[in-house]
Amino acid sequence: MTKPLLSVRDLKVEFPTRRGVLTALNGVSFDIMPGEVLGMVGESGAGKSLTGASIIGLLEPPGRIAGGEILLKGERIDNISPDAMRKVRGKRIGMVFQDPLTSLNPLYTVAKQLTETIMTHLPVSASEARRRAIALLDRVGIPAAARRIDDYPHHFSGGMRQRVVIALALCAEPELVIADEPTTALDVSVQAQIIDLIKEICAERNAAVMLITHDMGVIAETADRVAVLYAGRLAEIGTVHDVITRPEHPYTQGLMGSIPTLTQESDRLISIPGSMPRLNAIPPGCAFNPRCTQTFGRCTAERPDPIARPNGRQVACWLYDEEKAHG
Amino acid sequence: MLAYSLRRVLQSILVMLVVALISFALFRFVGDPVNSMVGQETSLADREALRRQLGLYDPFVVQFWNFITRAVQGDFGISYRLQEPVMKLILSRLPATLELALVSGTAAFILGVGFGVYTALNRRGLASNGIMTLSLIGVSLPTFLIGVLLIWVFAVELKWLPSFGRGDTVALTSWWTTGFLTPSGRASLVLPAVTLGLYQMTLIMRLVRAEMLEVLRTDYVKFARARGLSQRAIHFGHALKNTMVPVITVMGLQLGSIIAFSIITETVFQWPGIGSLFINSVKAVDVPVMAAYLMMIAAIFVIINLIVDILYYIVDPRLRLDGGGKH
């Protein structure tokens, strides 16, 4: 069995505030295998982006990692020096942000931003960096890359800019790319192109992808496995096929029920009553218990840990606890 | 670029014409010029002759035209008070003011940007908080009070620096005298320069700090971090350049006001510049000097604004609308 590229173990992220400490991520654990695409879904505020920011070491202060560990190829990267972490960022873990219109520095040409990044991480000359930059732009689908490279970001459309951002994230050949809602800010017509591009280009380079999104459709088409976050905790993780066709956690079931499909007969979508709890008001026991239709005594008393299920799936729900079934 | 500059130059000429109109109006509405020029004993016939000689009976438009054509040639008439050509008076006073403005402006710019960047990058440091607190004094204390306090401490009590005047000067050309070349000239510059520049420095510093903090929060800085660029490249390459765009405008205008409104500082330190020339002319209703001063200050502001606009154009590629291929 291959070793995971990235292991997140029991990650806990806290925000100290005047009214006490908010726990934004609590006991999140998952692995990403080399070359794998892991989708990460959840509502706004569930902690998807925070997970990404924690991995790449860019949590906004006062947020901090309060517990757990993050391992890249078996080596911890959550407690190394800022300088060592800087060498991981860009070089070993690349990141694509949500809004391509604001991700690029408006005052520098695309060439300058690309060669600057390449030369920071790779021991190449300026002319070699430029040659690589042009090849990369060409690969991400910028027409006439050799000419367009000297343009400024404002000369490119949104979709084209996201291609440039992808080129920037990939220019030092990272092993993992974290894509934080890479298509949310884009036109629907170019969303699929960008997702396909990320998937293709990462597969070519054998880079793993952590795809953060709230779009289940994107996950279904792109990811190998999917992790569902709820209120800073992992609700369910498993292969995309398993989770989408047979969701086990009641929250995932609700999430799937709320997606319109063309084949389904019913014309009403199921919505989950209530809303996700605020971070300072997470109920005791399972965070989902107030909205769950199958709550029983144990759910309000004890927090469920992820329970191993067939086919590598894990579900944090007492419904699947063996002890309960047998006793 | 050329069309843009040309358009801005035309606009500047228009502004100067309006200012000229206001200056010209001074002659007609601030008392009777003939009364100011002649003594009590002058006969009515002589006064009449003078009126004709001065062209005061010509139509308004003709008088205004004559005023402008003479002004363009640097002829603003004869000072009522000193009986010397106004242009010669101003030229003899201008070096003192320009040297003072140059020294205090440069110091304010360098220290302002330096402290601004430092306090933005070390937001919570002890030194930053100290600088920010002290800068409140610079913003809130009136200039004359700072000047008087400096004279009291450094000239009266410590006797380190002279309290008034320009010290010894060296004539460079027929009208340009400089205080830079003698020890007493340089010593004399210190206190007035500090007085004049302190407010500008704190203003620039607080502006740079605020802008820098804003820029450091932007997505492109976050993306630059995610690409693993060095702190140096992020802070001074990406952040500072974006900070300078709005700062340039304010600094241009501040440089104008250092020259224009050095009146208070020049009065406190009996500095022989155009500020003190102006204030003495106002006391004596010396209209030609006042009009020329007004025109000159307007010209300085217009020229600085023109330079600022062109600098803007150089710094920010988004303004170069005609350049590059729009996609």
Automatic annotation (TrEMBL), chain A:
<keyword id="KW-0067">ATP-binding</keyword>
<dbReference type="GO" id="GO:0005886">
    <property type="term" value="C:plasma membrane"/>
</dbReference>
<dbReference type="InterPro" id="IPR013563">
    <property type="entry name" value="Oligopep_ABC_C"/>
</dbReference>
<dbReference type="GO" id="GO:0015833">
    <property type="term" value="P:peptide transport"/>
</dbReference>
<keyword id="KW-0472">Membrane</keyword>
<dbReference type="InterPro" id="IPR017871">
    <property type="entry name" value="ABC_transporter-like_CS"/>
</dbReference>
<dbReference type="InterPro" id="IPR027417">
    <property type="entry name" value="P-loop_NTPase"/>
</dbReference>
<dbReference type="Pfam" id="PF00005">
    <property type="entry name" value="ABC_tran"/>
</dbReference>
<keyword id="KW-1003">Cell membrane</keyword>
<comment type="similarity">
    <text>Belongs to the ABC transporter superfamily.</text>
</comment>
<dbReference type="InterPro" id="IPR003439">
    <property type="entry name" value="ABC_transporter-like_ATP-bd"/>
</dbReference>
<keyword id="KW-0547">Nucleotide-binding</keyword>
<feature type="domain" description="ABC transporter">
    <location>
        <begin position="8"/>
        <end position="256"/>
    </location>
</feature>
<keyword id="KW-0813">Transport</keyword>
<dbReference type="InterPro" id="IPR003593">
    <property type="entry name" value="AAA+_ATPase"/>
</dbReference>
<protein>
    <submittedName>
        <fullName>ABC transporter ATP-binding protein</fullName>
    </submittedName>
</protein>
<dbReference type="Pfam" id="PF08352">
    <property type="entry name" value="oligo_HPY"/>
</dbReference>
<dbReference type="GO" id="GO:0016887">
    <property type="term" value="F:ATP hydrolysis activity"/>
</dbReference>
<dbReference type="GO" id="GO:0055085">
    <property type="term" value="P:transmembrane transport"/>
</dbReference>
<dbReference type="InterPro" id="IPR050388">
    <property type="entry name" value="ABC_Ni/Peptide_Import"/>
</dbReference>
<dbReference type="GO" id="GO:0005524">
    <property type="term" value="F:ATP binding"/>
</dbReference>
Automatic annotation (TrEMBL), chain B:
<keyword id="KW-0813">Transport</keyword>
<protein>
    <submittedName>
        <fullName>ABC transporter permease</fullName>
    </submittedName>
</protein>
<keyword id="KW-0472">Membrane</keyword>
<comment type="similarity">
    <text>Belongs to the binding-protein-dependent transport system permease family.</text>
</comment>
<feature type="transmembrane region" description="Helical">
    <location>
        <begin position="247"/>
        <end position="271"/>
    </location>
</feature>
<dbReference type="InterPro" id="IPR035906">
    <property type="entry name" value="MetI-like_sf"/>
</dbReference>
<dbReference type="InterPro" id="IPR045621">
    <property type="entry name" value="BPD_transp_1_N"/>
</dbReference>
<feature type="transmembrane region" description="Helical">
    <location>
        <begin position="133"/>
        <end position="155"/>
    </location>
</feature>
<dbReference type="InterPro" id="IPR000515">
    <property type="entry name" value="MetI-like"/>
</dbReference>
<keyword id="KW-1003">Cell membrane</keyword>
<feature type="domain" description="ABC transmembrane type-1">
    <location>
        <begin position="94"/>
        <end position="312"/>
    </location>
</feature>
<dbReference type="Pfam" id="PF19300">
    <property type="entry name" value="BPD_transp_1_N"/>
</dbReference>
<keyword id="KW-1133">Transmembrane helix</keyword>
<keyword id="KW-0812">Transmembrane</keyword>
<feature type="transmembrane region" description="Helical">
    <location>
        <begin position="12"/>
        <end position="30"/>
    </location>
</feature>
<dbReference type="GO" id="GO:0055085">
    <property type="term" value="P:transmembrane transport"/>
</dbReference>
<feature type="transmembrane region" description="Helical">
    <location>
        <begin position="291"/>
        <end position="315"/>
    </location>
</feature>
<dbReference type="GO" id="GO:0005886">
    <property type="term" value="C:plasma membrane"/>
</dbReference>
<feature type="transmembrane region" description="Helical">
    <location>
        <begin position="100"/>
        <end position="121"/>
    </location>
</feature>
<dbReference type="Pfam" id="PF00528">
    <property type="entry name" value="BPD_transp_1"/>
</dbReference>
